[in-house]
Amino acid sequence: MPPRIVGVDFGWARVGIAVADPLRIFAAPLGTFGRKEAIARLVEIRDRDGLELVVLGWPLQLDGAEGETVDLVRKFERQLEGALQGVRILRMDERYTSKIAQDAIRRSGGKRSERRKKERIDSAAAAILLQDYLDSRDKDLRSDHD
């Protein structure tokens, strides 16, 4: 089985994590964790299943400039690099992922109280980020064969 690919949505209070299936077709939310617990979960995934890539949401502003959160995410990225030595970390624009996650939860029929739970939004945003990566990767592979 190939090593895993995970998506990480860093937030001020919590970190959302999503995991790709072994075939790398679908992203599924794993959960939302405190920063230290998130790193521990990623180490656990690496040790159990192997971990090839962390797709890390990069907080850009609407105009594409780096926002104030970037310094925190950069610090978290360095912590990931230390804990997951040898695992590649890819920064990916995370604009709109939280809004898309809220809309998806609403469309799925989630109650208003569920849609507002930031924990659920963070893990769903990580899954959306990861799915975007998987889809773009799949598109690149298809275009190589055209």
CATH class: Alpha Beta
Major β-sheet strand ordering: 3-2-1-4-5
Residue share in β-strands: 15-25%
Nearest-integer average pLDDT: 83
Shape descriptor: globular
Main β sheet profile: 5 strands, mixed
Measured between the Cα atoms of the first and last residue, the distance is 27 Å
- The radius of gyration is 15 Å
Give the count of helical stretches.
Answer: 5
Description of the molecule:
By secondary structure, this protein is of the alpha/beta class. It has a single domain (4-145), classed as Nucleotidyltransferase, domain 5. 50% of the residues lie in helices and 23% in strands. It contains five helices and five strands. The chain has a five-stranded mixed sheet with strand order 3-2-1-4-5, with helices on both faces. Helix 1 (35-49) packs parallel to helix 2.
